[in-house]
Amino acid sequence: MRLARLLRSHAGEVVAVFAFLVVQAVCELSLPRYMSDIVNVGVVGAETGNSAYLGHMALVMFGFCAGSLVAAVLTGLIASRVAAAVARDLRRKVFAKVMSFSPAEVNRFSQSSLITRCTNDVQQIQNMIVMMLRMVMLAPVMGVVAVVQVMTMGGGLAWIVGAALLAVLGVIAVLFVFTMPRFKAMQTLVDRVNLIAREILDGIMTIRAFGRQDHELARFDGASGDLRDAQLFVNRAMMLMMPLMMLVMNVTTVAIVWFGAHEVAAGAMQAGDMMAFISYAMMIVMSFLIVSMVAVILPRAEVSIGRIQEVLDVEPAVREAEHSTTPAADAPRGRLVFNHVSFRYPDAERDVVSDVSFSTAPGKMTAIVGSTGSGKSTLVQLAPRLYDPTAGTITLDGVDTRKMSLADLRSRVGYVPQQGFLFSGTIASNVAFGTDDADEKDLRHAIDVAQATELVTQKEDGLETAIAQGGTNVSGGQRQRLAIARALATHPEVLVLDDSFSALDYATDARLRKALAREQSDTAVLVVAQRVASVMNADQIIVLDDGRVVGQGTHEELLRSCPEYLEIAKSQLSAKELGLGEGE
Ligand SMILES: Nc1ncnc2c1ncn2[C@@H]1O[C@H](COP(=O)(O)OP(=O)(O)OP(=O)(O)O)[C@@H](O)[C@H]1O
């Protein structure tokens, strides 16, 4: 069983739990025997009223009670520890795996489902382990020993226990049939509530702007209501079980007393034995009850294990090289070469990037332009291996990027995504994010080149100014500049800017480009841009159309040779700005 596999690394503790359970079982199973003796001998037999005898027996029974109590407490402590440790290990494993996922792999599960799997599903497993260790292992031991006792004590009444067990099994079976599907669906329902909650919180501004709060609230209520219904149904069914079980137990007791009384009257059984018989019968019923209850609840934990396994089983498309290589020390730095590169998203029908070849050079700027959806972002995401090309190769300083270690590659390729993301912390912690050895001077320089100095000087706390989670307390343009500063602080060989100037005004955009050219003279810059004005001075411009390169050259060359580029340029700049005659 897969639950058992999770416990393998805690074998020692499991053995200790088992030992304490045996102690607990022995203590609890001994008590009815002593009770039987105390009644047979001390209440109605030879030692009636003998205080010394009764005191001795009471002391022995107290000893067994205390033993059982201590063993149960120790079992509980160890079981909780083991379960918490297994849960922590599982969370770590799942999270480490998720960190290696590409965006497509994250989307396959959805972010909220991955969070549910890391939290709620792990919790289900943790609960189940505690239950398994504390009760399930004890129940069969108790049950079997109690059955043996019952058989030896009063074979004539054993049929009552048999009938009670049939009744218990009947109740559990009915319950099983009705609750199982809902139990299994529970995790999916939790997932859905989390998904909707997350989506609504992420999109709260848009929802307010369009006045759709009521609509979204109703959507959330729907999912939440489904979860409530499932939980209510399952809990009610479980609650119903308790009184039914009490009924079975009470009827069993009455039956034992009824039929036992006849046996006692006939001299076939002693009164004390009848009482012990009742205790053992109850133990048998309880053991069956626990095992069956777990059989009902176990599938929910199994579903959770399955959901976690599903995440762990994913082979990330971008994998670490088995034997990583680094570029030779004397190799030219900043030469990123795309060699007939094509890329198709998983499960997509066609290539988003087809047969693209170009190379970057240190101190030079390569710009990618093209209409929206032409594959620009996808193309540059291949450089730091956020995805791997489906055909062709990408080399950096002469080494296939797939053969480099991911950490090495990503320290050489500084990537600034379209949506610059900031972490909660300070300006300094955000800019120093990609490097461990940047001092304040380095950080200030990176911030200066990224044209974000005024953001620091305007604030009272300077570099230590607090940044909220996601960078929500700075503007879009400020976020972009800090994201650029973060990449610059790592001194990359190739700086990849995915439309990272889009929120900047023209003047800042121009200053930033100039500063980049001046200060990063040995860095190759690969930039995706919507604005032709931003890239007019680039050393080479690559024009993408539907994932294909339709033009490659300088601004002037492309104006003459590439109709697609001319069209984009004309749509943004006047003929004068482009240096074209009015008639062209
Ligand atoms: N994760 C994804 N899974 C499947 N298809 C995707 C994914 N991301 C993007 N696409 C598709 O790939 C194509 C290119 O997208 P991409 O973002 O690279 O274009 P772009 O040129 O950068 O566009 P824009 O200028 O609007 O940012 C689009 O048609 C888009 O629908």
Automatic annotation (TrEMBL):
It is found in: Cell membrane. It comes from the Bacteria. InterPro entries: AAA+_ATPase, ABC1_TM_dom, ABC1_TM_sf, ABC_transporter-like_ATP-bd, ABC_transporter-like_CS, P-loop_NTPase, Type_1_exporter. It is a multi-pass membrane protein. GO terms for molecular function: ATP binding. Residues 15-300 form the ABC transmembrane type-1 domain. Residues 336-571 form the ABC transporter domain. SUPFAM superfamilies: ABC transporter transmembrane region, P-loop containing nucleoside triphosphate hydrolases. Its main location: membrane. PROSITE patterns: ABC_TM1F, ABC_TRANSPORTER_1, ABC_TRANSPORTER_2. The chain crosses the membrane at residues 12-31, 51-84, 132-151, 157-178, 237-261, 277-298. The keyword Transmembrane helix applies. PANTHER family: ATP-BINDING CASSETTE SUB-FAMILY B MEMBER 10, MITOCHONDRIAL, ATP-DEPENDENT PERMEASE MDL1, MITOCHONDRIAL. This is ABC transporter ATP-binding protein/permease. It comes from Tractidigestivibacter montrealensis. The lineage of its organism: Bacteria, Bacillati, Actinomycetota, Coriobacteriia, Coriobacteriales.
